[in-house]
Amino acid sequence: MELESISNWTGRSRRTALKGIGGLALGAVASGTAVAQEEDSRTDFTAELLPENAVPPDYEPASCDAEGVANFRLVEEEERVEYQLRLDGIEGVSGVHLHRGSSGENGPHVVDIHKGEPTGDTGEFFSLYARGEFLPDDFADDFDGSFADVVELIRDGETYLQVHRDDEGKEVVRGALK
């Protein structure tokens, strides 16, 4: 699976852009879900991506000022998950993966959203923006669960998104889906 678009964004304040995206995400959640809705029927999830969320010894915080947000929407009747990812202050992205595991622990891949050659520029204000979707056919080779299992993991707070920024994949920014 490849990222739908990766772009350089310059001349914008990272915090301003992230606040705008966060506001849009909150608006989508507020308009798409009722306040009294049961926890197990949520469809919208967000992860705040930061280097300090890396969990040693397997990984270390990316040595950059990266920060970002990822929004996920479950479309159960079609067995697909839509996502939007925005990261500022990062270059050389070598992988983006949805993992199984809770905050403070490392776990296996569920979906390989992007893997392969590092992408990016060496510009000071490099950003990554991607949006797309994944289906059961896109699950990682070693994940033997169903779409319903992925939905349950996400709703139970047992998934996180991890973005790798070096060739070895050790430097990361990470955030739990909530």
Automatic annotation (TrEMBL):
Recorded hits in Pfam families, A to Z, give:
CHRD
Chain ranges of the CHRD domain? 41-178
Q: What domain of life?
A: Archaea
| Database matches in PROSITE patterns | CHRD, TAT
Name recorded for this polypeptide: CHRD domain-containing protein
